[in-house]
Amino acid sequence: MTPLQKSILNAVKRRPMTLRELQNNLQVDNSRLRTTVSAMVATGELSMRNGTYVPGFATYENAAAPNTIPCTLVKLAARFGFASRDDGEGDIFIPGRALHGAMPNDKINVKLFDHPRVEGSSEGEVVEVTAPNNRFAGTVCLSEDGRMAVEPDGCRDVKFLLAKQGSEGVHLGDKVGFLITHRGNRHSDHRAAVVEKFGSSDYASECAKAILYGRSVRQEFPPEVLEEARAYDNATIDPAEAAKRLDLRGIPIFTIDSAETKDIDDAISLQKLDDGYELGVHIADVSHYVRPGSALNEEAFERATSIYYADKVIPMLPTQLSNGICSLNEGEDRLAFSCLMRLDENGEIRSYKFVKSVICSRVKGVYKEINALLEPEEGVDLTDLKTKYEAVLDQLPTMDELYRKRLVLRKARGGMDIESNEAKLVMDENGRCIDIIKRDRGTSECMIEEFMLLANQCAANAGRTNKAPFVYRVHEAPDAEKMEKLSATLLACGLNAKFKNPIPTQLELAALLDETRGQPIQIPVHTGILRSMQKARYAPQPLGHYGLVLADYAHFTSPIRRYPDLAIHRILTEMLNGASASQLQRDFNEFAQQASEKSSKQEVAAVRIERDVEDLYKAEYMHNHLGEVYTGTVAGITPRGVFVELDNTVEGFVPAAQLCKGEPQVIDGVSMLDPLTGKSWMLGSSMKIQVAAADVALGRIDFEYMVE
After folding, report:
1. Among 266, 285, 547, 639, which is most buried by a count of CB atoms within 10 Å?
2. Average pLDDT, stretch 480-493?
3. How far is residue 317's CA from residue 566's CA, in Å, rounded to a whole number?
4. pLDDT surpassing 60 at residue 62
5. Which helix (H) or strand (E) holds 347?
6. Residue 74 class from Cβ within 10 Å (0-12 exposed, 13-18 middle, 19+ buried)?
7. Is 49 helix (H, G, I), strand (E, B) or coil?
8. Is beta strand 629-638 parallel, antiparallel or unpaired with respect to 537-539?
9. What residues pair up with 509 in beta bridges, in sequence order?
């Protein structure tokens, strides 16, 4: 703020003043005063009231609140933004003129308004950018006056003029990475320079590269990490190390994954006993190779997770480990961390132990093939498959038997099985999406999930009962207010959703999930229940898992692609080596806290990237089907229109103006009524649509309503 602006503001804070009074009071040139006052009105620092100037909304102070609140700007549009409070107390709405040029992921200080426009809401002004974020991805466009500009991804109608230097060869519609080279007090004053050119925004692969750039994803490994990884080129296990371990190479252990999986971190074995079962879950011993203080460990900690999108992966660990010495490849000796469990005849855990082992997978199992063996179709010749799985074939019926018993136990305790409608993107040789297939989970997928869950449960129990610092996977009970809204929505859908208490039991929610499974209303009900839940996260406290209905739960089974698993492997190893509780506390207290926080944050970022990139490829696919007609299911209803989901999981938007001749009436968020025609649409109802538009750069698909 300039000295003149401060003088003007101080003057009108004392009493409202006309322009002439300000000129007489401040003794300043009239033309300069008019220009400055006009700019202050535009930015909200001044307002006009009855012909006088008074402090604007951007200068209101809330005496009951701290002077400023540290925040991060999380959303930006042309006329507003949202800031997330660093203390976790929610979001603050920032009107456009009060943003003062702040950008997404800027660290900012916000001052709350004393009189927000919406009673009870938090509304404020950005008073300082403490740590600017100047790295973005976007699409090259034209400014209102026809000059080359760039629109940042996720910031619709926000445009920055491009500096000529560095923008050579850039074309309209290109996806680029850019830096803000100059910041003004308003977004229109910012200037940008292109630093990366990805290609046309018509292609999802180029838009995906831009997303990764804009979100600062670590794609290349630093030289020191690659140098450490090169030590494991074509590596085999150390015989001296293997001699110290429990040798399980004589047991028929094998893996089950997708056909394309190259980073295989879990294997299984099962033996039926007279009084139950002995289940072995054998996990790659990544912690043996990724040691504390190493460059590999520091990089894995920073990444915290692998990111999977389309047909690509950005691994947490270099391929020498993720696809090599740590991957439980068929026919190769590998160091493992095994959880050996005894279960009774009903499938309940009686005892468990963790051991360092050496294993050799007999076969690389594939979900689709195992499903064919477990549930053979009439007339299908399985001779070749039986030959491939000959070494482990006799285990499959026993595994299926144990899984069925575990499924009964899960249902009895209220474990929730939410249909997630995951999609598989089919790519051509040029990386273009040519098909989208809904992923159907067969018996083998569910079976492996259940066996991994058992090992995860045992790991968390070991950490808790030994009072060791640990990284737990926690899922807390849902918020009562969200559950009240969910109940009202479900009741409006005609479902019996009157819960006995403000927070429903898992059995109550599981019953609703089962009641709607396979029904037209399944998509909105399952999605609604999922969205009303709290997000699962990592924490050093054993807070339990609401969705799984388990007191003990952690992530033990994927240390190649998740850092929390690697972290607890390290802690469990020291427990096996005889470290005392006090020693474990000294060595791992801070580590468990840091790993939990970092991994939770990186997981959220990775999931958002994977979803956003998937939307790009879905839009790319549907762009090749413009004009085609489909029948979908109404999955969401808003005053602006409805969201329709197709059988292939693609979701598109139908504007309310196409549906209603009159002002649309949205009832309880579950139905839309046109009062002029009497027509209505409800969650779960079918709708015939035509693909009207597919914007790859935005990952957005628009449908047109087809009158039936």
Report:
1. 285
2. 83
3. 11
4. no
5. none
6. middle
7. strand
8. unpaired
9. none
Which strands sit side by side in the sheet containing 80-85, from one edge to the other?
A: 91-95, 80-85, 69-76, 107-112, 124-131
The residue to which tokens 């109940």 are assigned: 487
CA 377, CA 487: separation in Å to the nearest integer?
Answer: 42
**How many angstroms separate the first and last alpha carbons of the chain?**
60
> In the numeric block, which tokens belong to residue 225?
């990490």
- Own/partner contacts of 403-408, CB < 8 Å, gap of 24 or more, are 403/443, 403/446, 403/447, 403/450, 403/451, 405/346, 405/347, 406/347, 406/450, 406/454, 407/446, 407/450, 408/347
pTM over 0.90: no
**Neighbouring C-alpha atoms within 13 Å toward the C-beta of 46:** 29
8 Å CB contact between 576 and 354: yes
Q: Work out the number of other CB atoms within 10 angstroms of the CB of residue 607.
A: 13
DSSP SS3 for 584: helix
Helix (H, G, I), strand (E, B) or coil at 480: helix
What the block records as the tokens of 567 is 């972290």
Q: What is the per-residue pLDDT for 493?
A: 80
The answer to whether the beta carbons of residues 356 and 245 sit under 8 Å apart is yes
Q: For residue 374, give the nearest of 401, 336, 406, 407 by alpha carbon.
A: 401
- Token look-up 């007489």 returns 24
Cα 561 to chain centroid, rounded: 15
Q: What tokens does 600 get? A: 């939770």
- Name every residue whose Cβ is closer than 8 Å to that of residue 536 and which is 6 or more positions away in sequence: 473, 474, 475, 545, 547
3-state secondary structure string across 89-141: CCEEEEEHHHCCCCCCCCEEEEEECCCCCCCCCCEEEEEEEEECCCEEEEEEE
- DSSP 8-state secondary structure symbol assigned to residue 392: T
Element (H, E) at 666: strand 665-667
CA atoms of 181 and 162, how far apart (whole Å): 10
Q: Three-state DSSP class for 452? A: helix
Separation CA 684–CA 265 (nearest Å):
39
pLDDT digits (tens, 9 = 90+) for 613-660: 999 999 999 999 999 999 999 999 999 999 999 999 999 999 999 999
Residue 287: exposure state from Cβ atoms within 10 A (0-12, 13-18, ≥19): buried
Residue type at position 685: S
E-assigned strand segments in 245-284: 246-247, 255-257, 266-273, 276-284
Which 3 state secondary structure label does DSSP give 348?
coil
What is the DSSP code (8-state) at residue 644?
E
Half-sphere exposure of 681 (CA within 13 A, CB side): 27
pLDDT in tens, 258-302: 998 999 999 999 999 999 999 999 999 999 999 999 999 999 999
Question: Residue 397, SS3?
Answer: helix
Render 319-366 in DSSP notation, one character per residue. HIIIIIITS--TT-EEEEEEEEEEEETTS-EEEEEEEEEEEE-S-EEE
Q: Going by C-beta distance under 8 Å and a sequence separation of 6 or more, which residues neighbour residue 595?
A: 301, 471, 538, 563, 564, 567
DSSP 25-87: HHT--HHHHHHHHHHHHHTTSEEEETTEEEE-GGG---TTS-S-EEEEEEEE-SSEEEEEETT
Task: Say if residues 174 and 200 touch (Cβ distance below 8 Å).
Answer: yes
Distance CA 92, CA 127 (A): 13
Angle subtended at Cα 103 by Cα 7 and Cα 37, rounded to the nearest 5 degrees: 25
pLDDT tens sequence across 551-603: 999 999 999 999 999 999 999 999 999 999 999 999 999 999 999 999 999 99
What CA dihedral angle connects 340, 345, 346 and 352, to 10 degrees? -20
**Mean pLDDT of the 351-373 span:** 97
How far apart, in whole angstroms, are the C-alpha atoms of residue 375 and residue 422?
Answer: 22
Quick count: other Cβ atoms within 10 Å of Cβ 440?
9
User: For residue 353, how many other CB atoms are within 10 A of its CB?
Assistant: 13
Pairing of strands 364-366, 255-257: parallel
